[in-house]
Write a structure and sequence with these properties.
Radius of gyration of chain A: 21 Å
CATH superfamily of the largest domain in chain A: Medium-chain alcohol dehydrogenases, catalytic domain
Oligomer: homodimer
Organism (chains A, B): Tetracentron sinense (Spur-leaf)
Order of helices and strands of chain A: EEEEEHEEEEEHEHEHEHEHEHEHEHE
Protein name (chains A, B): Enoyl reductase (ER) domain-containing protein
Strand content of chain A: 25-35%
Distance between the termini of chain A: 15 Å
Largest interface: A-B, 35 and 35 residues
Family (chains A, B): Belongs to the NADP-dependent oxidoreductase L4BD family.
CATH architecture of the largest domain in chain A: Alpha-Beta Complex
Keywords (chains A, B): NADP, Oxidoreductase
Pfam families (chains A, B): ADH_N_2, ADH_zinc_N
Number of strands of chain A: 18
Chain lengths: 347, 347
């Protein structure tokens, strides 16, 4: 294609704000959009071809009317969805980027994107791992696991660690970090297939299917007869309430997400907060954006772990931009096994 | 009276475990008990005459069947209630204590106590303040305010601080510490008299009567249009839920108590925990027992503040051991104005 050529640019749009459980039909494929494959004269933007898009639970909060507390602005109805992705630079008006560069960061759910917020892009220097890893284990979810576990949980060798949504992009890595440190690690997930993965692929000491448990308190007491030192919270609701009853003295809860609550009109009530006093628990919410200064350190560590076979990583790839809405919604029913990625183009 | 004389020793007993709201009749005055005013031969105990007894909210949890999470053992039904107090040593089998010493620490709700757990006693060296202060501003509640504010809240000059149950033994001191540091401080309380006290005696910037507010979220937005950096939590329930909606980024919540929940069969549900992520809040429970190593530092600081008139302190004194049950129960209806003390003897 010639420079500056105008091409078709399929997009996934959010039709309107969503309350309750999101459906595929809340999103739409726009086939009629076009884009010029050149950065406008004088602009410092970059023009990229999107390769991999990341499906992340936090995106649910951007589909919601901006009435609930959130930390990022909502999507714009009838506009393209945005999210983390891996892309290749086709043209650049910014001195830090040039044609052919690979980047990861905030892009659009479309074939090509003109990105003006270049400060949120990371250049990819290492291509000895699959590029899609930069939507997961080497990208935002990986950094989330790293910051949450090492910076918030204050982990020590031998401690008892519980991870919910443990086979997801963040959870699988948290569990492996904890194992590498010498902790006892249990994960919960929502299918037996994921439980198998946790025990047999990711090396968790134990794992259970929370949907098979009628009483989460009893389940946790079975796996943690001496209680939990560290809880890495991804789900919220009833699981958090049960965990609070099972924390050990001076336990720590890193609150990363509460995916079980995102589609409820009114979040479930938590009743066991008094444990925070009785057990002297520290419960701390965090966002990965506060920790990106640690990215180079994280990248060095995790690349070595991956190359040394000390960390394994499972992705669930949906092929084609058109598969994006179903893939995103699948997160909330737990359809994905491992990190959910949408493959827009292979290069 | 002669050494080793046997004397009458009135006691307050807990009749049986209490569920729901405690009543005076859950306790009983035992007039028939006697005690020998001498430590048994070979014992390392101390025999004390109790002067002041402290009424503290945590005592409610010791009246409950040991089914809920707690950090201290329950009282023994049909036995004397124990708690913090100030007492005078009449006889000692322990080398660290001698007749005439004044102490504060765990004693019994009775005229005289034989204390075997002497490791939990503090010797009183300074009598240039009222002795009853060692049940409050210079004792456990004071240390609680000090540890919670300085060690848990990570306070900085100019921050916005909210204290609930602010006229209580702990709250009044937290607010004054925060003012001395240069914070903006608002307190809540349950009567207009207490609100006046907060504003006109303790120097809070603002105060409000939570019982006059139909919507605590609206009330907090009125006093904290820019949000709350530090919440010193004494009450739990609806107030905590409203505070969560009004925290600022990187806010801190020191969870000291949840008095609104102690008499409920089932604690109220909290719905706004997601704010912990959105606002990156650190919420941390603590118990004063973990911080007693700081007591000498605390004592130096607060004695100087008191002598310099920089900290004021309000007590609510009930006269006579017989008044103990009503005084203790009054805590849960907010009857007390300031720190509730029971005067057993003036010396």
């Amino acid at each position: 294609m010639g420079e500056g050529e105008e091409v078709g640019n399929k997009q996934i749009l959010l039709r309107d704000f969503v309350s309750g459980f999101p459906k595929e039909s809340d999103m739409a494929l726009n086939r009629s959009n076009t884009i010029q494959l050149k950065v406008p004269e004088g602009s410092k933007a970059v023009l990229v071809k999107n390769l991999y898009l990341s499906c992340d639970p936090y995106m649910r909060s951007r589909m919601r009317k901006p009435d609930a507390p959130s930390y990022i602005p909502p999507f714009t109805p009838a506009s393209v969805i945005t999210g983390y992705g891996v892309a290749k630079v086709l043209d650049s008006g910014h001195p830090d980027f040039k044609e052919g560069d690979l980047i990861w960061g905030m892009t659009g759910w479309e074939e090509y994107s003109l990105i003006t917020a270049t400060e949120a892009l990371f250049k990819i220097h290492y291509t000895d791992v699959p590029l899609s890893y930069y939507t997961g284990v080497l990208g935002m979810p990986g950094m989330t696991a790293y910051a949450g576990f090492y910076e918030i949980c204050s982990p020590k060798k031998g401690e008892y660690v519980f991870v919910s949504a443990a086979s997801g992009a963040v959870g699988q890595l948290v569990g492996q970090f904890a194992k590498l440190l010498g902790c006892y690690v249990v994960g919960s997930a929502g299918t037996n297939e994921k439980v198998d993965l946790l025990k047999n692929k990711f090396g968790f000491d134990e794992a259970f299917n929370y949907k098979d448990e009628t009483n989460l308190d009893v389940a946790l007491k079975r796996y943690f007869p001496e209680g939990i030192d560290i809880y890495f919270e991804n789900v919220g609701g009833k699981m958090l309430d049960a965990v609070l009853l099972n924390m050990r003295l001076h336990g720590r809860i890193a609150v990363c997400g509460m995916i079980s609550q995102y589609n409820l009109e009114q979040p479930e009530g938590l009743h066991n907060l008094f444990s925070i006093i009785a057990k002297r628990i520290r419960m701390e919410g965090f966002l990965v954006v506060d920790y990106y200064h640690l990215y180079p350190k994280f990248l060095d560590l995790v690349r070595q772990y991956i190359k040394g076979g000390k960390i394994v990583y499972v992705e669930d790839k949906a092929e084609g931009l058109e598969s994006g809405p179903a893939a995103l919604i699948g997160l909330f029913t737990g359809k994905n096994v491992g990190k959910q990625v949408v493959v827009v183009a292979h290069e």
